[in-house]
Amino acid sequence: MNDQPISDEELGDIEELCSAATPGPWFVRCLDDQSAMGLIAVSTAPDTGKGERWPDFDHGEIVAATLIQQPRYVDSVDELWDENAAFIAMAREALPRLVAEVRRLRGGEVSGK
Description:
Elements: H1 8-20, E1 27-32, E2 38-43, E3 62-68, E4 74-75, H2 81-105
C-alpha cells in the first residue's frame, strides 16, 4: 500500500474514471445463469429478489459480474462474490463523494463531475 498522500493529479484521474463510467447508482443483483446456478452481478437496476434466470433479465443493465458459474467465466478463488459485488456497487457512489470531500478539506474547489 502506498502511504503517500493522493496528489491533485490523482484526484483528477479518479474523477475522470468516475465520470466516464456508467452512471450510478449501481446495485448487487443475485441472478441465475442458463443452468440455474448462481450469477452475482452489479447492475444499474435494483435486485428484484426473484433470482431471474438467464435470459429473463436485461443484460444491458449489468455493468460487472463477480460470479458466473455455468459456464464458469467469473469465479474468485476466495469465494467473496457477494462482498466484491457490494464493494463495486458502493464504490460507484462513494468514490466521487470521497474525491469531493478531499478537495473540500484541502480548501480546493469541488469539481461538478
